[in-house]
Amino acid sequence: xxxxxxxxxMAVLMGLAGCTSATPGTxxxxxxxxxxxxTSTDNTSSSGLAAIKPCDLIDGSEISQLGLTSTxxxxxxxxxxxxxxxxxxxxxxxxxxxxxxxxxxxxxxxNTVGFSFIDDPIGHHQGKQARETxxxxxxxxxxxxxxxxxxxxxxxxxxxxxxxxTLANQFAKxxxxxxx
Length: 180
Hints:
Layout: H1 2-16, H2 36-39, H3 43-47, H4 60-65, E1 69-76, E2 79-86, H5 89-92, E3 95-102, E4 115-119, E5 127-132, E6 138-145, E7 148-156, H6 161-175
Antiparallel strand pairs: 1-2, 2-3, 3-7, 4-5, 5-6, 6-7
């Protein structure tokens, strides 16, 4: 249960602020006076993400084959999200996977506070891997357009960040072919 809470917290933190720099630990909050009219420009139609439902990023046969249970779709912190659990993994310690579609936030808008980043291209998309600097959560950020992205997060019950990053990367590679 604690791993799920960390992944949800991480998703909220990643969506709260945009950054102007990719330097770890120097996130800069975006303009808090931006109106909803300004942020509702239709970037989704040009990116193709608008037609994608986050829970459809992993298809039903893959969900079954991987022993996943969907925690269902959610929205919040600038993202349309879906999560999956595998409670049988690693002798019952399990893992949690999350996918956040960010229709109006590109790679450059990723909050870097509390994470160290490395370049991690996924398929034909630009990407970055983010390791939590004081925890065990890992995130793979896939750039779809300069103003849109998909975040794939992983957390394990064993509190092993290397295992979490392996899972986040595995699922990012599974999700990437479904992206425009």
